[in-house]
Amino acid sequence: MGQPVLKDAIAGATVVSLPGKPSDVLPLPAGPSKSIATRLVPLAKGALVNLLPPLITIALILLFWQIAASGPQSSLPPPTRIWEEAKDLITEPFYWAGSQDIGLGWRILVSLQRVAIGFSLAAVVGVLLGTLVGQSVWATRGLDPVFQVLRTVPPLAWLPLSLAAFRDSQPSAIFVIFITAIWPVIINTAVGIRNIPQDYRNVAQVLRLNQIEFFYKIMVPSAAPYIFTGLRIGVGLSWLAIVAAEMLTGGVGIGFFIWDAWNSSRLSDIIVALVYIGVVGFLLDRLVALIGHVVTRGTATN
Amino acid sequence: MSYLKIDHVDKRFQRGAATTEVLKDISLVIDKGEFVSIIGHSGCGKSTLLNIIAGLTPATTGCILLEGKEVNAPGPDRAVVFQNHSLLPWLTVYDNVALAVNKVFGGKKSKAERHDWILHNLDLVQMGHARDKRPGEISGGMKQRVGIARGLAMEPKILLLDEPFGALDALTRAHLQDSVMQIHAALGNTMIMITHDVDEAVLLSDRIVMLTNGPSARIGEVLDVRLARPRKRLELVTDRSYIAAREAVLKFLYERHRFVEAA
């Protein structure tokens, strides 16, 4: 919108060669003439371009599913039957009618709370341990092989041990989240610390920054993009682990809901719960990515 | 008593059983307020010598004396302007300089004094206008200006410049050379600059220290540049002593110590 105006001004200035006051020309016509409609149109266009393809995909999947699951021999319900059977779950995520008869929104919140505690612990401990491993050669030699072995243990394999140790399902579930999410945080933080450019270390040395100043003025900001990559992987893994852990520990979480529904053959409920889990997992990932984007602004560009 | 004394410095690197001698018996005395350039072919150990003076690399034998005292660790009394600017990309221009000022003058100056001192140094390199920009948003020459401001703001006894203009285009480089000359004239800092640019060395320096080729680089010659200051780039082009100094350095580099391995 503004460009032709600018061009005119420059062209005018060069041709007539007025004694250097192009600023008289510039601010005149632009700005206020823009109506809300002209601003909204490109915005709406952008939304349409980004939203239309996934909507079409979803519609096609639903259509295919409907056709495939409509036969008399079909063992899974088609979308129309899910809508009939589990309408209340879809439309009322936050209803409350007794201790086990609650909306999926509440269950998700309970699961999220566990993830929040376990994941926060994993983030703090993971960054500190990762810093140690990245900073010290001896810590790397001593700890890295142990980490590499432990990180391959599937989340649920920790559950019996953790139940035996804590004797309660709530801390056990949180521990499983913690032990699942911590490895990518440690490993990525260590890589980030190792990749701090020598130049930054030289700057710190010339300024005689002490260890603590070096940690939070140079190390953390410099390794932040790596740390957030680790956190993003970690939050995804936590969400994977909580559902499985809750299936076994029981309680109010979304994982137990699926197990409960399976035991009473409510397949439609399970499918609705899966959609909830997927959407929330997606949002969690985006949330951590967004925080990372805000915190590390400027770090990536040099 | 000399201001800075480089006293019989040797530097050897040990890798397994193999030892490479990079610098051999480097001795040099630098006076307060002097501008000294160290010139030599690439790989001859210029940067190693600067890092030894800065304390970032330890000398194998010999020592560095600053005002009679041995220095063997890095510190803000020997500020370094790094070749690739080394600004912290997550801090603004102002905060990059503030990091140094707050660390060095944290206990000595009030907050307002430090603020004024940061702005003063940014103005000195004509970067006051970009104080809220991040390094990623400014040009290479501007980044190097900020790097110089950060160095100056530490009020170092010696400012060490490690090929400060090496990565810049010729026009930007000329601008920055002029800025450094102005700052040197105004503040009278002692400066040591590493360079491989003959014109730059002659234009800026009081003395040019020429290193022979490595391994085991020595000081081959030291040339006094007796040109009156302030120096004007254009007037010097036809100046006889300028041409003579330039010729002396070129002859050293390309006749007596040709870099055989190059190209």
Automatic annotation (TrEMBL), chain A:
It is found in: Cell inner membrane; Cell membrane. It is a multi-pass membrane protein. InterPro entries: MetI-like (IPR000515), MetI-like_sf (IPR035906), NtrB (IPR005889). CDD domains: TM_PBP2 (cd06261). Keywords: Cell inner membrane, Cell membrane, Ion transport, Membrane, Transmembrane, Transmembrane helix, Transport. Pfam families: BPD_transp_1. Belongs to the binding-protein-dependent transport system permease family. This is Nitrate ABC transporter permease.
TrEMBL record, chain B:
One of its GO terms (molecular function) is ATP binding. It is found in: Cell membrane. Gene3D superfamilies: P-loop containing nucleotide triphosphate hydrolases (3.40.50.300). The keyword Membrane applies. Residues 4-238 form the ABC transporter domain. Its main location: membrane. It is a peripheral membrane protein. InterPro entries: AAA+_ATPase, ABC_transporter-like_ATP-bd, ABC_transporter-like_CS, ABC_transporter_ATP-bind, NO3_transporter_ATP-bd-like, P-loop_NTPase. Keywords: ATP-binding, Cell membrane, Membrane, Nucleotide-binding, Transport. Belongs to the ABC transporter superfamily. PANTHER family: NITRATE ABC TRANSPORTER ATP-BINDING PROTEIN, TAURINE IMPORT ATP-BINDING PROTEIN-RELATED. This is ABC transporter ATP-binding protein. It comes from Bosea vestrisii.
